[in-house]
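tokens incoming
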């Protein structure tokens, strides 16, 4: 069983810990001119959608992994978010750790934060932060094309927590089913959604949708999930926090 954990990034980064051979850098948006670390894999090689990185974010990496990776076990970390062995410690999962977990579980996912949706339901939070119409379009497409998933979509819409970050580790043959399902929905949304009406933050719409949809898929498949802590290497600055609050406030005012 071969294992590759892809560290996706859109710029050069430094990681102050050693990592095993299973970790590989994957540069996103390479077709748009993004530059990464030396020896990074690039998402504009092979079968790819690298040119869509501005709106698909880490999904251009996920698509590349789906279409080009030959590893038996695959995973995705971000250049500043990593699956780790214990809370608040940058101690990356080893190949042995992953194998031991997947001997008992179907997939590894980020540990849920009970406050991730600010005590709102997933649907309410998406509507507040993004565009409720996109959530409705997503539901409509699932109802029409994947009707057996509709109850799972409605279940998650009422949940007040969930898996986020578009991070995962699992067997590729299992995750390939998710990727095929996910990109069919996203490709349909792409034909319906006018990104030009959004600010730069919400032009990344498809990444936000995918964060939610993996919860729907996992619930429908009834997979056995092992939740693992995620270590964030750089916290938002005070200026970034204030900017985020201002953006959120402006969105609320615009809806009044």
């Amino acid at each position: 069983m071969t294992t590759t954990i892809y560290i996706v990034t859109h710029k050069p980064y430094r990681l102050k810990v050693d990592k095993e051979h299973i970790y590989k850098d994957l540069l996103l948006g390479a077709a748009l001119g993004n530059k990464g670390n030396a020896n990074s894999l690039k998402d504009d090689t092979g079968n790819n959608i690298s040119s869509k990185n501005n709106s698909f974010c880490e999904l251009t990496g996920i698509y590349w992994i789906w279409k080009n990776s030959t590893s038996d076990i695959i995973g995705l970390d971000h250049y500043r978010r990593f699956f780790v062995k214990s809370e608040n410690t940058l101690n990356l999962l080893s190949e042995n750790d992953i194998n031991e977990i997947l001997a008992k579980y179907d997939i590894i996912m980020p540990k849920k934060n009970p406050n991730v949706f600010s005590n709102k339901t997933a649907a309410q939070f998406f509507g507040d932060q993004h565009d409720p119409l996109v959530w409705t379009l997503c539901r409509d497409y699932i109802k029409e094309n994947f009707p057996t998933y509709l109850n799972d979509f409605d279940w998650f819409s009422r949940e007040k927590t969930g898996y986020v970050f578009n991070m995962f580790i699992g067997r590729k043959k299992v995750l390939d089913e998710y990727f095929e399902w996910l990109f069919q929905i996203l490709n349909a949304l792409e034909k319906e959604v006018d990104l030009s009406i959004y600010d730069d933050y919400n032009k990344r719409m498809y990444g936000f949708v995918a964060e939610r949809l993996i919860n729907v898929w996992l619930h429908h498949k009834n997979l056995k999930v092992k939740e693992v802590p995620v270590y964030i290497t750089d916290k938002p600055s005070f200026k970034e926090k204030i900017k985020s609050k201002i953006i959120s406030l402006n969105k609320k005012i615009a809806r009044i």
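note: The radius of gyration is 18 Å.
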